[in-house]
Amino acid sequence: MTEHDHDHDHDRTVAPMVDEVTDFEVLEIALRELCIEKGLFTAEEHRLFTEFAEQIGPTPAARLVARAWLDPEFKQLALSEPMAASKEVGVDWLEPTGFGTPSDFTAFSILEDTPTVHNVIVCALCSCYPRPILGNSPEWYRTPNYRRRMVRWPRQVLAEFGLYLPDDVAVRVQDSNQKHRFMVMPMQPPGTEGWSEDELAEIITRDSLIGVALPKPGVTTNVITETRAAIHPAQDN
């Protein structure tokens, strides 16, 4: 057998697992390794926190909002002292993992929707997100498409999620930052009067807590949103 007498295809290539590594990902890796080298936290602590964030999801936040809909006193606590209200649903912002990994999220606010105001959160600079109570952010939240356009053309972007708001409803975009995280408290939808906390929590999706969707009876999952390059809207709104 010669060196070319074999049955594999020379033209076959292995597809890369990652098409592109962004500048932010390179920065995160470098910063993480530097923090570990300086002893700010260990690689094991980072792994534990990552696993914690991936498994919690938005369930605590959904329960917080559902309880606020049912209990006016708890709602007042959630809006005035959101960290204290978070503890009532099992989230300690100062030590969210429960095994010694501290949080640097020193401020947290809950934004209440009203019949005339709709809130939506974004991080225009990078991808700051209330992970202790919402888990890891969705992929689209971290894209330049969402981050850059939401602060400029919020109604256009919300429409792409299928959310069309009346003209008399103001859209307030809250830009998160390194030290301050936000989440939305949407309004309780009609037709859910008399529901239990468990029933209400099921329709409070992650997207409604970010502000790109509204809770609806029968809708218990997030809209699958294709990520794509940013485009200029047909007209400014």
Explain this structure to me?
The protein is an alpha/beta fold. It has 10 helices and 4 strands. The protein has 2 domains: 23-54; 57-210, Nitrile hydratase alpha /Thiocyanate hydrolase gamma (Nitrile Hydratase, Chain A, Alpha-Beta Complex), CATH 3.90.330.10. It is 37% helix and 10% strand. The chain has a two-stranded parallel ribbon. A two-stranded parallel sheet has the order 2-3. 27% of the residues are buried. Residues 8-18 have low confidence and may be disordered.
What is the strand and helix layout of this fold?
Layout: H1 23-38, H2 43-56, H3 59-70, H4 72-80, H5 82-88, E1 107-112, E2 117-122, H6 131-134, H7 144-150, H8 154-160, E3 170-175, E4 180-185, H9 197-203, H10 206-210
Parallel strand pairs: 1-4, 2-3
Helix pairs in contact: 3-4, 3-9, 4-5
CATH architecture of the largest domain: Alpha-Beta Complex
Q: How helix-rich are the residues, as a percent range?
A: 25-40%
Q: Going across the major beta sheet, what is the strand order?
A: 1-4
Largest sheet: 2 strands, parallel
Beta-strand content bin? 5-15%
Number of helical elements? 10
Mean pLDDT: 84
